[in-house]
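Supplementary Text 2. Reproducibility record for the structural model of the 406-residue chain.

All settings were left at their defaults, and a single model was retained for analysis rather than an ensemble. We include the record here because the model underlies the residue-level annotations in Supplementary Table 4.
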Amino acid sequence: MCSVSQSPSFTTLPAKRGWKNHAPMEPMNATAKYTPDRCEVWGPTQNGEAAFAATLAASGLPADKCEVYKLPIGGGFGRRVAYQDYVTQAVLIAKQIQGTPVKLLWSREEDMLHGRYHPVMQCKLVGALDAYNNLTGLHMRLSGQSILANVRPAALQDGKDPLVFQGLNPSGDFAIGYTIPDLLIDHAMRNTHVPPGFWRGVNINQNAIFLECFMDELVHAAGQDPLEFRRKLMNKHPKHLAVLNAVADRAGWGKPAPQGVHRGLAQMMSFNSYVAACAEISVKDGNKVKIHRIVAATDPGYAVNPAQIERQIAGSFVYGLSGLFFQECTVKDGRMEQTNFNTYDSMKISQMPKVESIIMPSGGFWGGVGEPTICVAAPAVLNAFFAATGKRLRTIPLKNHGIQMV
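Retained model, structure tokens:
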């Protein structure tokens, strides 16, 4: 047996332990009107029941005297799911000036400083190849924060967070998609003072980077083709294999790419959907990355509105690529340093690659479309970057490596 190991640890965030903010265009806000006999709240929320519970607790009134009206939201991405602090605040203020409607609107700075941030995580991986360069063992050691420990402690299982293993489960939803004879995946929970939260895609985002980028490292250690290496491990996972084959076929894998263009692959199961991506990039001067094209395949079981699915896929790449290249929150003197978009950047329209969506519903189940494809954006680009430069990047955001998106 020969072994291939990561040293140093393959981390999704830099050594100074960055986090990511939801940063929706619409900051947290709510409107409340309180009288001793009735409390009404108008608010943009992803969870009407949680907003109603917050209203009851803050008002002190019984349920039959409270009403919450859900409004369209200008972005939530998980921030408006379990966290109804803005609703509580609006009701408490309204109680002080009874009978007068109160419109509460956080400033951008308040929104950025009082978020629930994507958890800091890192992973050490060790893989084993036999004499024929077949993958026979994989050990993934995850380390970092638990969202459930902060948000829903009752959902922990014997003190463990099952959500940490999204995309790495042996079967069912969030299944790993590979048959590996010896597989061990564990988690060392390390919680900090920074409150973590559900950030669009949640734990699948870093797990896809860990798994698919390390799979690419194993591929090159074995001297094999990235597509064929994966295919050998996916015989018992036909739906995972189908989306991977679809993007490879559409992108022309195995045929020469345009001059100066390099490709990278990634696949995952996320929110009960099977997703894969092939990224085509070029690199100038060693650090200027142009993403020309991303081919993305999604099997959500059923496709009710294909046009909406295509928009969700494209939008998810905006989120995934912005997180890969730019976005990071850092702590200094106990508080976040990034308070607005001048220090927490996002990709521009001119940087957006062409996205070719392949929607291939196979029936028999219902999967998501708004979150799943985020996770394959970063590993597909990182694997393409290695193909272009021969250099592995194991921490993000890439701006910390001097990598620019052009």
